Amino acid sequence: MVALAVATFIGWGCLMGASEVVESLRTGVLNNRKGPDILAAEQPVIYWALISFYTAATLTAAGLGLVVLAIAVRDLIGARGSDR
Question: What's the rounded Cα separation, in Å, for the pair 25 and 31?
Fold first, then answer.
Protein backbone atom coordinates (compact mmCIF):
# COMPACT_ATOMS: atom_id res chain seq x y z
CA MET A 1 0.00 0.00 0.00
CA VAL A 2 2.90 2.35 0.68
CA ALA A 3 4.27 1.73 -2.81
CA LEU A 4 0.86 2.54 -4.23
CA ALA A 5 0.80 5.81 -2.29
CA VAL A 6 4.32 6.66 -3.50
CA ALA A 7 3.33 5.89 -7.11
CA THR A 8 0.29 8.15 -6.74
CA PHE A 9 2.41 10.97 -5.35
CA ILE A 10 4.95 10.60 -8.19
CA GLY A 11 2.11 10.56 -10.73
CA TRP A 12 0.64 13.74 -9.28
CA GLY A 13 4.06 15.42 -9.49
CA CYS A 14 4.41 14.31 -13.11
CA LEU A 15 1.03 15.78 -13.99
CA MET A 16 1.99 19.09 -12.39
CA GLY A 17 5.36 19.11 -14.18
CA ALA A 18 3.81 18.20 -17.52
CA SER A 19 1.22 20.94 -17.18
CA GLU A 20 3.99 23.49 -16.48
CA VAL A 21 5.94 22.34 -19.56
CA VAL A 22 2.86 22.50 -21.78
CA GLU A 23 1.93 25.94 -20.45
CA SER A 24 5.49 27.18 -21.03
CA LEU A 25 5.47 25.86 -24.58
CA ARG A 26 2.08 27.46 -25.23
CA THR A 27 3.06 30.90 -23.93
CA GLY A 28 6.78 30.93 -24.78
CA VAL A 29 7.58 32.03 -21.23
CA LEU A 30 9.25 29.84 -18.64
CA ASN A 31 8.11 31.03 -15.23
CA ASN A 32 11.08 31.32 -12.92
CA ARG A 33 9.74 31.60 -9.42
CA LYS A 34 13.05 32.74 -7.90
CA GLY A 35 14.06 35.27 -10.52
CA PRO A 36 13.09 36.84 -13.84
CA ASP A 37 11.06 34.80 -16.29
CA ILE A 38 12.85 33.31 -19.29
CA LEU A 39 11.34 34.29 -22.62
CA ALA A 40 11.79 32.07 -25.68
CA ALA A 41 12.19 35.13 -27.91
CA GLU A 42 14.88 36.79 -25.77
CA GLN A 43 16.90 33.77 -24.58
CA PRO A 44 16.11 30.85 -26.89
CA VAL A 45 19.11 28.67 -25.97
CA ILE A 46 18.45 28.86 -22.23
CA TYR A 47 14.70 28.47 -22.75
CA TRP A 48 14.99 25.33 -24.89
CA ALA A 49 17.70 23.85 -22.68
CA LEU A 50 15.53 24.23 -19.59
CA ILE A 51 12.37 23.00 -21.33
CA SER A 52 14.29 19.94 -22.54
CA PHE A 53 15.63 19.32 -19.04
CA TYR A 54 12.19 19.69 -17.44
CA THR A 55 10.64 17.38 -20.05
CA ALA A 56 13.33 14.74 -19.53
CA ALA A 57 12.94 14.98 -15.76
CA THR A 58 9.16 14.63 -16.01
CA LEU A 59 9.43 11.60 -18.30
CA THR A 60 12.03 9.99 -16.02
CA ALA A 61 9.80 10.53 -12.99
CA ALA A 62 6.84 9.08 -14.91
CA GLY A 63 8.90 5.99 -15.68
CA LEU A 64 9.82 5.66 -12.02
CA GLY A 65 6.18 6.06 -11.06
CA LEU A 66 5.19 3.27 -13.46
CA VAL A 67 7.86 0.96 -12.04
CA VAL A 68 6.69 1.64 -8.48
CA LEU A 69 3.07 1.16 -9.55
CA ALA A 70 3.94 -2.17 -11.21
CA ILE A 71 5.69 -3.31 -8.04
CA ALA A 72 2.69 -2.27 -5.92
CA VAL A 73 0.21 -4.07 -8.17
CA ARG A 74 2.41 -7.18 -8.30
CA ASP A 75 2.67 -7.24 -4.51
CA LEU A 76 -1.08 -6.73 -4.07
CA ILE A 77 -1.93 -9.47 -6.57
CA GLY A 78 0.72 -11.77 -5.08
CA ALA A 79 -0.60 -11.17 -1.57
CA ARG A 80 -4.13 -12.00 -2.67
CA GLY A 81 -2.99 -15.03 -4.67
CA SER A 82 -1.13 -16.62 -1.74
CA ASP A 83 -4.32 -16.67 0.39
CA ARG A 84 -6.14 -18.89 -2.08
Answer: 11
